[in-house]
Amino acid sequence: MTRKQRRGIMIGGGVIVLMIAGLLVMTALRDTIVFFHTPSDVKAGKVKDGQRFRLGGLVLEGSIKRGGGTDVGFSVTDKGSTIEVTYRGVLPDLFREGQGVVTEGRIDQGGVFRADTVLAKHDETYMPPEVAKALKEQGLWQHGKDGQAVKDQPITAKGAGKP
Question: pTM value?
């Protein structure tokens, strides 16, 4: 075997080892990756049954219902669709109606999202990037000069403010 043939075999073997390693990493991460979806995505069937995902949107006005202990129910909307959410735990201090929220969990057989994590915005102009992007794509985003949400102006179903 010539030097050129040995080099080709070594390079080919290295490529095969890297492909196998990449495949193993992707297989291991497949179950831990959590994708972001809006209520409209869920209603359109873009989420598989039993799939863990992040649901993002706005907390619907008048939808927060406190149960016994730390049980809370509320609705998340993207102004196109609304999903009921249940959560057991302590909500973030900044969680309130009309604000952006991202929840993480699964949809049950009844179509209710069972959240095990709730993330709320961290100042009065912040909205999670995924939620803002989804609302912009639907034409429901209002923003000011700095690209952030317009403070004290609700997003209306008729459309966004000035781009």
Answer: 0.59
